[in-house]
Design goal:
By secondary structure, the protein is an alpha/beta fold. The protein has 2 domains: 194 residues, Rossmann fold; 175 residues, no CATH class. The chain is 39% helix and 18% strand. The chain contains 13 helices and 14 strands. A hairpin with an 8-residue loop joins β10 and β11.
């Protein structure tokens, strides 16, 4: 607020009329040490583009010498020296760009030998050790890493003055905290920069904080069910086959999430019964999901709970997506840890489920299973 007051007084001194003054857009601060800057927002809100602006600022700041250069240094590190780390899970998003590109929707920055990838916090720690002079680290999609990354960055920031910028999803497509890593990133950040995007519904211009997952089946928008696999690795191109999701940003009104009540009233309780040895209810429900969806409890739940009009139509469209039984199994096994490997193989064998799809999704969610 003080900053806004100062800006207002400055503009007033120049003869500007009384205006609504917003926060001034500033270049990145390479002087302050130890910062952990969490950049949050839905897909398409400009999180990676924010990192690209930091990179461009660093190219200018590195030209400064003398006293200016001393301000950005702590010991052997210089915070103007920026290194970008991408999650190894995220390599397929922009296949048409150069290997050294920090790519975002609408452009990219080439980072030369100052860009790499890591699959976990241990590989990130190795990169930091191998580039000990680097003072600012951009960790793209940090929530994809293990929980240890939050404390690794905190320790490096506090002990050596490094700065970390981590643009990432904090909320998943279910509008819930993405995972435990995201929760710890929130707890250990020193600064949080929230970004929004326009709701991408054709008839809406509201701000959106939410990432919406949907499938395109026969030209219809089909929202992802609540129990859809949490992580699905893929590129940013539009998908039309029903196997791979599309993403956009949506406001409260147009963010459809069918099947949430069903998940907690039916699917998860049936998984808990299976974990205790009674697989019959889950086997019957999975059989209905696979072969006769209108006989499933999922259909009855959506039919009775999805309101009217566009919302009702969209929720029913979710049932057009293929592999609903497979998606339910991935949720129970990889996310809820309710089913054993032997039970997974039994369900797959008894119902003749799609092994290729299951292998892909289980690998995406770090619970690979030999089928």
């Amino acid at each position: 607020m003080q900053h806004n007051d100062e800006t207002s007084e400055f503009l007033k001194s120049l003869g500007f009329p009384q205006l609504n003054i917003h926060s001034m857009a500033k270049h990145h601060d390479f002087v302050s040490s130890g910062k952990r800057i969490l950049v949050i927002g839905p897909m398409g809100s400009g999180k990676t583009e924010f990192s690209a602006r930091v990179w461009r600022d660093s190219r200018i700041a590195l030209k400064k010498k003398g006293a200016a250069a001393k301000l950005t240094s702590s010991g052997t590190v210089d915070r103007r020296d920026v290194f970008v780390v991408r999650s190894a899970l995220d390599k397929s998003r922009f296949p048409d760009y150069p290997d050294d590109a920090l790519a975002y929707r609408g452009g990219y920055e080439r980072c030369g030998n100052r860009i790499g990838s890591a699959k976990d916090s241990f590989e990130l720690e190795m990169l930091i050790a191998e580039n000990s002079e680097v003072g600012t680290w951009v960790i793209d999609e940090a929530a994809f890493f293990d929980e240890r990354i939050a404390y690794l960055m905190k320790d490096e920031a506090e002990s050596r003055g490094l700065c970390f910028i981590y643009p990432t999803l904090v909320l998943n497509f279910r509008r819930e905290i993405f995972n435990q890593t995201a929760r710890l990133l929130l707890e250990t950040a020193t600064d949080i920069i929230p970004l929004t995007a326009y709701c991408e519904h054709d008839e809406c211009l509201k701000d959106s904080l939410y990432t919406y997952r949907y499938y395109s089946v026969d030209g219809r928008e089909c929202p992802a069910l609540y129990f859809d696999p949490l992580i699905i690795i893929g590129g940013d191109r539009a998908k039309h086959d029903g196997r791979e999701p599309n993403y956009c940003t949506r406001c409260d009104e147009h963010h459809y999430l069918p099947g949430k009540e069903y998940t907690f009233f039916t699917l998860k309780p049936f998984g808990e019964l299976a974990a205790r040895g009674n697989i019959a209810p889950l086997l019957a429900e999975l059989g209905a999901l696979q072969g006769n969806i209108e006989e499933s409890r999922l259909f009855l739940s959506i039919e009775g709970r999805s309101g009217t009009g566009e919302e009702h139509e969209m929720h029913l469209n979710a049932l057009r997506v293929p592999f609903i039984a497979e998606r339910a199994l991935v949720y129970l096994y990889a996310e809820q840890n309710l089913l054993s490997e032997e039970q997974m193989r039994l369900f797959i064998r008894e119902l003749n489920l799609d092994r290729e799809y299951l292998c892909e999704r289980l690998a995406d969610n770090r619970r690979p299973l030999a089928l």
